[in-house]
Each structure stands twice: as C-alpha cells, then as structure tokens.
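FW: tagging you since you asked about this chain on Friday. Here's the raw sequence from the shared folder, copied in full. Didn't touch anything.
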Amino acid sequence: MERTKSVNGKKRLFADFALFLIAAAFDLITKAAAADRLKGQPELPLLPGILELRYLENHGAAFSLFQNGRIMFSIVAVSAVILIAAMLLRPPATRRYLPFRLCLVAVAAGAAGNLADRLLYGYVRDFIYFVLIDFPIFNVADIYVTCAAALLCILILFYYREEDFAFLRRRVS
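HL: got it, structure written out here
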C-alpha cells in the first residue's frame, strides 16, 4: 500500500510539473507572438469596442502598478513558485485535491511566465485589452494567476472543509 502511494505521488508530481511547464510555455509563446506581431503596430480589434490586442511593455506589477520594482517582483515570484512547489508535495494523492493542485500549478505557471519576462527583458509583455470596461492591458500569465486565485478562494470557502487541510499542519520528515 505504501509503495502504491509513493508511485501515485510521483505520478501526480510529474503531471503537475508537466502541466506547469506547458502552461508557462504557452504564456511565453503568446507573449512572443504578441511582441512579434503587435509591437509598434496599431491595436488589433478582435471584437470592435469590446476586446483588442494592444502591445504594452509593463515595467510594474499587475495592471502596471508599482513601476520599476523588478527586483522586488522577481523575489516575490521566485518565493511564490518555491512555496507552491513545497505545497504540491503535501496534499494526499486523491481526486478531492485535484482542483486545489490545478489552482496552485496555474498560479505558479503565471508567476514563472511573468518572472521569465522580467529576467529576460526587464519588463512583462502585455497584450490583451478589454476596451469595453477600459481594463488594464494584461497577458495569459495574469489570467492564470487571477482566475486560479479566485477559484482557490471559492474552493476554500465552499468546497473544502477545515479538516481537508490537515496535511498542511503535518511535519515533513
């Protein structure tokens, strides 16, 4: 039985890591495509008056807040990815924790995607703009982090019970 748990845990971690790599790569690919096709070009309406693609080099955090905090943002992103990786080692390998793990993987992939941009370019490449509500320009990594964090809040409030997180109080040996 213990061997089966170990094998399932390794498969789960491999799947989480593979999904993390795929999601982070997709984010970086979309940013590269946006930089290649949109930089220096006029905005590209997808749904006129609602949604358009518009290239922006964001030197701040989410939604261009806190401009030029590259080192601080990098430290926060690295810390978040490390914390999430440690948390992914802890939940039991059951289906009940799949939504929890997927949310953590999405947050980590988003953090890693934007961190890669900051380290490689000194800024984050944003390109999705909701014209209708004049929402700040964002990217795929921002979608991962925002949606996963919101879903995680909903899961914690309405799906999981306090005892479901007993694994967080266990000591790692």
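FW: The first helix runs from residue 2 to 38.
HL: agreed, and The chain is about 55% helix and 10% strand.
FW: great, closing this out.
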